[in-house]
Design brief:
The protein has 274 residues and is mostly helical. It has nine helices and no strands. Helix 1 runs antiparallel to helix 7 and helix 1 runs antiparallel to helix 9. It is elongated.
């Protein structure tokens, strides 16, 4: 027969074993959830085309881009006044779309040159000169020359390297998001089978929330330091908007953590009454 001390020792060993396994499980869960949260935030901010387009159009970087375009146009005596708001929006959309597609920047300014040709034709008409006197194909040749001049100015080695880095970072972030999502789902299933889903998820969500929040604040502080001084205003704005978007997703995780702890405390209170 087993003595009472041996029975207590066996039960104590089983309890300690469960705590150890739960601790390891919770640690893995925290790591996976932190990666999941950071990659999710990244996919909605830094690697989100709409987010980046909004940041560019609402910052001084848009004017810097247009300065490069206007410098190319000025080589042919084209005034910057020919660039309308629609032209500006189209240029920004084209640059962002091509950058996210990993393509070399290739702007088509035929709308501007066609507008210039229209003005030239109207001026010639005032002097009784028909536009048909112009050599055929001259407009197309001018368009190609202007597009080549502008695109050569904006396709600097730094821009090409930035596009390559963006593609690599997006690929890594997508892979991390997919892998962490699958792993976290498997962890939830395992915890449900082992009957410690509520207990583990409450701790995992709380600790992951604290770690993710700290990392978001660290990234927010690093963004202005990683950008050239000439784009400091964009970096400050980008960091603030990044933090705002990240806090939205962290708030969702915080609500989930509160709900899980509320269910645990409510269940503990009801069991103590019985």
């Amino acid at each position: 027969m087993q003595t009472r001390s041996r029975v207590r020792q066996a039960r104590h060993g089983q309890t300690a074993g469960r705590r150890g396994s739960h601790l390891s499980f919770n640690l893995c869960g925290v790591i996976v959830l932190v990666f999941l949260m950071l990659s999710l935030i990244g996919s909605r901010t830094v690697f989100n085309k709409r987010f980046v387009m909004h940041e560019v159009t609402s910052s001084a970087m848009e004017s810097d881009l247009l300065d490069q375009v206007q410098a190319g146009l000025s080589q042919y005596g084209i005034s910057s006044k020919l660039l309308t708001k629609d032209d500006t929006d189209q240029i920004v959309r084209t640059v962002v779309n091509q950058a996210f597609a990993g393509q070399e920047l290739n702007l088509d300014l035929s709308r501007v040159t066609d507008r210039l040709a229209g003005q030239a034709n109207s001026q010639l008409a005032q002097f009784g000169v028909s536009s048909s006197l112009l050599p055929s194909g001259a407009t197309g040749a001018v368009n190609e020359s202007i597009n080549a001049a502008v695109n050569s100015r904006i396709n600097t080695p730094q821009v090409k390297q930035a596009i390559n880095n963006l593609q690599l970072a997006r690929t890594v972030n997508t892979a991390v998001l997919g892998i962490s999502s699958v792993l976290f789902a498997l962890l939830l299933i395992w915890a449900a089978i082992r009957r410690h889903l509520l207990q583990s998820c409450s701790w995992i969500s709380t600790i992951a929330l604290l770690i993710s929040g700290g990392l978001v604040m660290a990234v927010k502080g690093l963004i202005p330091q990683l950008v050239n001084a000439e784009y400091s205003s964009l970096a400050v704005q980008f960091a603030a908007d990044f933090q705002s978007a990240a806090l939205t997703w962290l708030a969702v995780l915080a609500v989930i953590a509160v709900i899980l702890w509320g269910i645990r405390l409510l269940g503990a209170g009801l069991s103590s009454r019985w």
